[in-house]
Every structure is written in C-alpha cells, then in structure tokens.
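Internal ticket - ligand job 247, farnesyl diphosphate:
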Amino acid sequence: MSTHPASTTRPESAGGSVPRHVAIIMDGNGRWAKARGLPRAAGHKAGAESARKVLRAAGEAGVECLTLYAFSSENWRRPQSEINDLMGLLRFYIGSELNAIHKEGVRLKIIGDHRAFQPDVARLVDEAVAKTAGNTRMTLAVALNYGARTEMVLAARTLARRVAAGEMTADQIDDAAIESALDTRDLPPLDLLIRTSGECRLSNFLLWQAAYAELVFLDTLWPDFDGTGLNAAFAEYAARERRYGGL
Ligand code: FPP
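stdout (structure tokens):
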C-alpha cells in the first residue's frame, strides 16, 4: 500500500503539474573536477552540495519523493581511494544535514544494500533512517550499493519463497506482486527520471520503475545542477503528454 496518497494541494509548476516522484542519476562530478584541474574528490564534494540544493528545491516545488543514485553496485570497481572519499562525504553529510532534513519533515529511505559499507557508515545511515522514519512531508530515497537487476533478482526470490510457503500461487504473481517486493514498494510511481552530463543510459537504475517515467537527459554536469535546472526539467516534464500506451 502506498504511503503517498494522491494530493490535491500540491503546488503546480509554471507549465503544469509537478511530478510526484523524481529520480536523478547525478553524473559528471569527475569531468567537472577535471575541467578545473581539481581532484575527483572535489567534484564529488561539489556534487553533494548540488544534491543538498536540489533536495530543497524539490521540497519547495511539492515533489513527494526524490530518489538519488549516490552509489551504484558497480561503483565498487572504482579505486579504493575514491570509494573512501565517497564514504567520507556520506559521513560528513549525515552529520551536517540530518537535523536540517529532519526539521523539514523529510523521511530518509535507502534503496540497495548499504550494509556492505564500512560498519560505522552503515550504522550512521541506519540511525538517520530511524530518526526520520515518522516524517511525512517528503521522502528522500538514496540509492546506496544499488543495482536494479539485483533488486529484481531479490524480488523474484522473495516471491518464490512466498509461493514455496503456500502464501500465494505462481499465477498470483503480477505487476503489483512484483512491486510489493521491490525496494521502492512504499514510494509513489516514478514520474520523471533525470540524468545529467550528457550520457543517455539508465545504468542499472530503477529499470522496473522507469517503465512509464519521462526521461530527461541534460548536458549539465551534476555539480552545476541546481534548483533552476530542476525547474527546467519540470517544465519539460509538464510539456510532455503521458499516454501510458493509450492514444
Ligand atoms: C557520478 O560522477 C557520480 C557518482 C559516482 C556519485 C554521486 C555522488 C555524489 C553526488 C556525492 C554525494 C554522494 C555520497 C555517497 C555522499 P562521476 O564520478 O561518474 O563523473 P564522471 O562521469 O564525470 O567521471
């Protein structure tokens, strides 16, 4: 069951309706840093600042859920020093931002498996999720050690176990059953998926959920993205006609 019933009081963007659920592939931190002769870590730091700004802007626009791809299950292939930098940023931002997002009524949710992270980081994440669990104004879903195929494999196993336990039959497996076993089961349907930095791929992000989402690919590098870019993406979303396979 969704914890996000349709609301009639959400603000409208200039061009039309605001998407309920926006997901972002925050790409281009490394190129942003390289263009300035800076280390990649500086790009990630600037990228984390963009994430902070975009969360604020999304909340002000009336978005119910913002999902950010912060660390993919493929990111383990990066040099250990870069992984350590990303973990350091996660520690820093949980420390510095948690009270602010809690005060603003934001619920933090994790998709993926952050338990593979360093134990102190995993614990900080768990504490942040627990602290904000009762917040209802908006959900910030952060994808950590996330991969959509793994999410679907785990959902298949969950349903297979339900069938084996006699809780359901194989024929009862339908779209809703699969959705009920995905990490995103308590989030509104995905309306808009944005990727920055000019790449036009989904990179194993929200493959099931993106089935009817509007996809917006922007050339902007993630550290240059902010509330203005988000509103431009909303305007493009509002200008598109969503037919869900109909006429
Ligand atoms: C892609 O840029 C971005 C990431 C791999 C991670 C996104 C992370 C942040 C925005 C920082 C906040 C994250 C945490 C975990 C606190 P890239 O490095 O692939 O850029 P490139 O394609 O230009 O090299």
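Auto-summary: The first strand starts at residue 21 and ends at 25. Residues 26-31, 44, 47-48, 51, 70-71, 75, 86, 89-90, 93, 197, 222 surround farnesyl diphosphate (CB under 6 Å).
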